[in-house]
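Q: How would the structure tokens look for this protein?
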Amino acid sequence: MAEAYVDKVANELADLALADQAASGDVGIVDAIGEILGASSQSLQETYSTAIRVRRAEARAREVLAQRLANGYKAAPKPKAAPLQGLSDEDKEAAEAAIAQDQDVTSQDQTDVENAKADAGKEDAAPSAMPRRVTR
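A: Here is the predicted structure in token form.
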């Protein structure tokens, strides 16, 4: 019985918070409500957060389906990651640029690791700096 009430309240609050966000443009309201709920009821906060994620995922899925319909059911572009919440446009662009740069760095890091492995194979009996793992 209590779970049904928690679900009902969380769903209502999620609808109200997302409607407030859409009307006011204040992306922080969703998080503020979550913090208020978490101060008194972790269960309600978790259910609320899940309801928010479900609604946002549903909106993104409907957007992709609408694009497919508009394109005559041709392949829609790959969906973007969930938008960064609570950031200004400049901050979002900077964060997205950093993410793109990090992906480039990651591929370079993988190359460095492969080169290090190849170099390690050339060294005969160099002691490892890492201690051996003890198993019991």
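The helical segments are 2-24, 28-40, 42-70, 89-122.

The chain has a mean pLDDT of 79.

Upvote if useful.
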